[in-house]
C-alpha cells in the first residue's frame, strides 16, 4: 500500500503560520495535493488541543479524521519539541518531531510538560 503524507505541518497557533491552518482547511488542501495523511501538529498548545479533541474522531489506530466532513484525509497527532543549546559560542537548535498514538497519550504528555514547566 502506498501512502502519501506530510509529517511536518503546524497549526495556526505556531509562530509565523497562516491563521487559515485550521483542520478543515488543512484537510481540504491535503486532498487537493493528493496527501493521504497529514499531521495535526502543535498538540501541546492548549487551544489547539481543544480543537483537536472537539473536531477529530479516531478513524483507525493512531489516525484521526474530521467529524463533520466527508473528506478522507487522515490526521496523525504530533508536536515539535525544540531543544536550544549553546555549543562553544554558537547557538544550536534541534527540532524533534513527536507522534502520539491517541488523544489519551497526548493528554498524558501535556500533563507531564505542564508539571515540569511549573515544577508541580
The helix content is 25-40%
Count of helix runs: 3
| DSSP summary, beta strand count | 6
Radius of gyration: 15 Å
Question: Which range does the strand content fall in?
Answer: 25-35%
Kindly name the structural category. Answer: alpha/beta
Task: Report the span from N to C terminus.
Answer: 45 Å
Largest sheet: 4 strands, mixed
Order of helices and strands: EHEHEEEEH
Strand order of the largest sheet: 1-2-5-6
Mean pLDDT: 93
Q: How would you sum up the global shape?
A: globular
Low-confidence stretches: none
What do these coordinates show?
This protein is α/β, with parallel strands linked by helices. Helix content is 30%, strand content 33%. It has three helices and six strands. It has helices spanning 23-33, 46-55, 103-117, and strands at 5-6, 37-40, 56-60, 63-66, 74-87, 90-100. The strands form two sheets. It has a four-stranded mixed beta sheet. The protein has a two-stranded antiparallel sheet with strand order 3-4. The N and C termini lie far apart (45 Å).
